[in-house]
Every structure is written in structure tokens, then in C-alpha cells.
Amino acid sequence: MLSFFDAFYRSGALVFHEGHVVLPLLHSAVVESGWVTNYAFLTEYGFAQAMPGPLFTFAAYLGAATTHQPNGIAGAIVALVAIFLPGLLLVHGMLPFWDKLRSRPTTQT
After folding, report:
1. Which of 6, 63, 88, 98 falls between 20 and 30 A from 81, CA-CA?
2. What is the pLDDT, as a whole number, of residue 51?
3. Measured between alpha carbons, how far is 106 from 77 in angstroms, rounded to an integer?
4. Is the pLDDT of residue 95 over 90?
5. In the chain, what are the helix, strand and coil shares in percent, each to the nearest 5?
6. d(CA 72, CA 63)
7. What's the CA gap between 43 and 5, in Å, rounded?
């Protein structure tokens, strides 16, 4: 399960502003390791393009469709949390510094 979490966490940590940059990372993490077939990956990518919202939610499908444990709903939750966690940690880690920076007179113009 740690390798599963790590694959999605790394994909989330290495990509800024989501976009399609995450696709090669997810492909190498789940298809090349044999957790999801290439056909399933491409099919769900097509569905994800038709749906509104961020492409990172594509990770939930990959987590649910994987042959690796956890799969199903548990896999979807683990994958979704893992891919969004790096950004969440970055935002919460930087907010105190951002508030201090905004309160300085030199940045008030």
C-alpha cells in the first residue's frame, strides 16, 4: 500500500497547476507497473476530459480500477488523498509566511 500511496503522492508533488503534465507520471506509475491496463487508462482519460473539474480527480478512477490493493472505493480514496496532499501541505505550510509578507509595509503598494 505504501508504494501505491507513493506513486500518487509523487505525481501530485511534481506537478504544478495540474493540467496534462500529470498524465505521463500517472501512466508510468500505474500502467507500467501493471496496476491498470493501458486500455483502461486511456478510456478513463477520455471520460475525464468530458467531465468538468480538475484532471487530478482522474486519480480516483485509477485508484478504484487498479489490480493492486487497495482498490475499489478504498483505492479511490487513497489515490485522491495522495495526489492532493502535497499541494495541501504546501499551502498550509506557506500561509503563515504569506501573512507575514503581506503585512510588511514594503509589500503594501
Report:
1. 98
2. 81
3. 44
4. no
5. 75, 0, 25
6. 7
7. 23
Q: What is the DSSP letter of 54?
A: -
Contacts of 73 (CB under 8 A, 6+ apart): 64
Residue type, position 42, single letter:
L
Q: Count of CB atoms within 10 A of residue 84's CB?
A: 18
pLDDT, residue 77, reads 94
Distance CA 17, CA 2 (A): 25
| pTM for this model (two decimals) | 0.80
The confidence score (pLDDT) of residue 76 equals: 92
Q: Which residues contact 68 (CB under 8 A, 6 or more apart)?
A: 4, 33, 35, 75
By the 10 Å C-beta count (0-12 exposed, 13-18 middle, 19+ buried), 45 is classed as middle
Q: What is the pLDDT of residues 13-65, one digit of tens each?
A: 888 776 678 888 899 989 998 999 999 999 988 888 888 877 778 888 899 98
